[in-house]
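Hey,
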Amino acid sequence: MNTPSQKSPWTKTLLLALLVLGIYAIGAMLFTSWYTRHGQSIQVPKVVGMPFETAEEVLDDNDLEMVIIDSVYDEDQKPNTIVEQDPVFDSKVKPGRKVYVSINTGIKPKVRMPKLINGSSNLAKVLLQNVGLRLGKIDSVKSTFGPGLVIKQRFNGRDIAPNVPLDKGSIIDIVVSKKLSLADTTAVQMLNDGVVQDNPIQ
C-alpha cells in the first residue's frame, strides 16, 4: 500500500509537466498569432482634410498610430485639420505602423514687407510672392522718375515702409511711374530753371 509520501514525487512531476505543456501551448498561440499578423498589410486611409480628432479615430480603427510631426499654416484648410500625411493615402503598410501628419494651426504667420520702390512692377510681384504677400492694385502716375518704376508701396490705403511685419497673404498695392509727355517734360524743365511763362495779352 502506497503512502501519501510515496505519491508526492509523482504528483510534483505531473504538475511540472502540465505547467511546461501550458507554457508551450501559450507560446505557440502567441507565435502563431504574430506570424499570421506578420503577413498582413493595411491600406492607409486618407486623413488629409479631416479634423485632428476624427483622423486619430480613423487611424486607430485601422490599427494605425498617428504621430504629429509639424504644425503649419494653410489658408485653404480649416484650423486643426490634417494637411499632410506620410505614408500617403492607399499605401500598404503593416498593422501598428505609425502615420506621420502635419496639422494646420489656423494662425497666419508674420512676414516682413520687402522694399519695392525703384524696382519694376514685375520685380515687385516676385518679391511679394517670395515672402508670402500678394500684389493688389497697380496705379500709375506721371513722374520724373523713369517710366515703369514703383514709386509707392501701400497697405490698406496707406504707405508702408520696408521690414514692417504683416500677416502672410496680405495684399500690397503699388503706384508705378508713367512716362511724361513732351509738354509735361517742358513744363518740368522750365520749373527747374526757374522760368515762369505768363500768358500773353490778347
